[in-house]
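User: Sequence recovery, please. Input:
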């Protein structure tokens, strides 16, 4: 079930703030085109644009807006004209987009935006001072309604670990919704867990064990509830950025499947390569590549189906930077 075994012809639908695609929808008539999104990611994701501010009729160019706190309530108002209050309009727009968001498998937001920012959006307090504690109205609404949807801001995609984390979640969520959920059975749920178990371990080993126990409780009469809880807990676990230490533990676990197949020289080489990764001397792709080499010569059905070895197309080169 690795992504290398999946058909590569269909791009995965992912929502994105329209300005990041180069669309001139900013308040000043400009855009914030992101080369990584429009270049690399567009090869794998079908990017569907959303602009809440244009969507509520503010037009281009338009007055700038910001989040303010009034009588303990959050409002989105004009910077120059505080009487311009678009709070309810943004809430209504967000609710109206539910049918368009539902078929998506991820969303990339514009950072700092009073409508699209995921975190640390400026909120002006009662004294008129900005505090970086808000969430854009549109982003907050999507989070509330689609809690399992992988989401990220374009600025954070510049961090190699955060970028890899987001893209990995998109591919896993897409597989669940398109291949597991439509024909859900107890066997499909437990099989899915077996497939992503090593990936979960790289994020949180305790959570991975708990998810295994949860999947094992599934029966035909409780399958829906268990599957819903499993997906929510799994996506929450996958949000945690995988650490080098956890990756090393997983690599050593995988190495155990080769203990009777490798000679002493090959074993020593593999141990050293994993230690080099731990010391930061080589990226994660190096021990993974060596393991793949050994498993091509010594196939193992469990490792072959595991997402950990090939969680997304190798052409994305995400593990070259980890």
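Assistant: Recovered sequence (322 residues):
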């Amino acid at each position: 079930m690795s992504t290398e075994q999946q058909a590569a012809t269909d791009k995965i639908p992912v929502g994105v703030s329209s300005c990041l695609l180069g669309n001139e929808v900013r308040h000043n008539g400009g855009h914030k085109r992101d080369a990584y999104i429009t270049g690399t990611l567009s090869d794998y994701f079908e990017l569907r644009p959303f602009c809440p501010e244009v969507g509520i009729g503010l037009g281009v160019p338009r007055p700038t807006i910001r989040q303010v706190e009034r009588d303990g309530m959050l409002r989105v108002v004009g910077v120059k004209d505080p009487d311009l209050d678009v709070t309810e309009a943004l809430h209504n727009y967000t609710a109206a987009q539910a049918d368009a968001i539902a078929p998506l498998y991820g969303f990339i937001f514009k950072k700092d935006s009073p409508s699209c920012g995921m975190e640390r959006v400026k909120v002006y307090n009662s004294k008129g001072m900005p505090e970086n504690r808000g969430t854009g109205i549109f982003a907050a609404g999507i989070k509330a309604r689609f809690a399992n949807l992988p989401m990220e801001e374009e600025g954070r995609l510049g961090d190699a670990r955060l970028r890899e984390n987001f893209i990995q979640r998109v591919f896993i969520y897409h597989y669940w919704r398109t291949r597991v959920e439509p024909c859900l059975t107890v066997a499909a749920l437990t099989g899915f867990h077996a497939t992503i178990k090593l990936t979960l371990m790289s994020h949180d080993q305790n959570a991975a064990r708990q998810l295994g126990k949860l999947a094992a409780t599934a029966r035909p009469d409780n399958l829906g509830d268990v599957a819903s809880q499993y997906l929510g807990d799994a996506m929450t676990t996958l949000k945690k950025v995988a650490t080098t230490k956890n990756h090393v533990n997983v690599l050593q676990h995988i190495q155990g499947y080769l203990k009777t197949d490798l000679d002493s020289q090959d074993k020593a080489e593999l141990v050293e390569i994993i230690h080099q990764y731990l010391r930061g001397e080589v990226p994660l792709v190096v021990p993974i590549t060596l393991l793949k080499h050994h498993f091509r010569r010594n196939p193992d059905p469990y490792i072959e189906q595991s997402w950990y070895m090939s969680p997304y197309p190798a052409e994305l080169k995400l593990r070259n930077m980890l």
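The two ends are 23 Å apart (CA to CA).
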